[in-house]
Amino acid sequence: MSISCIFANVGSGGHDVTAPDFFRAATIFDRDRSVIGGGKVSLRKGEARDVLLVPAAGTYPLKCGHFLHASLGMTGMIVVE
Ligand SMILES: [Cu+2]
Fold first, then answer.
1. How many angstroms is it from 76 CA to the middle of ligand 1?
2. Strand, coil or helix: what is 35?
3. Which of 6, 39, 53, 56 is the most exposed place for a label (fewest CB within 10 A)?
């Protein structure tokens, strides 16, 4: 089953969703391959990106890859059941 993942940055600066294991395990539709670079989706302030994919079951870590952002708490987990 494919899902549409909406990544939205409502913060005051740039951020990304770095989850290389999640994106590597998922089937990414051709139209959205260019959105995911280096296992992450980069978002400018106020930007949102819609990515259509088929996720693989598992638990995957995610973080913001910007300098010090993960240490400020921008981390999480993606759980696909
Ligand atoms: Cu960040």
1. 12
2. helix
3. 6
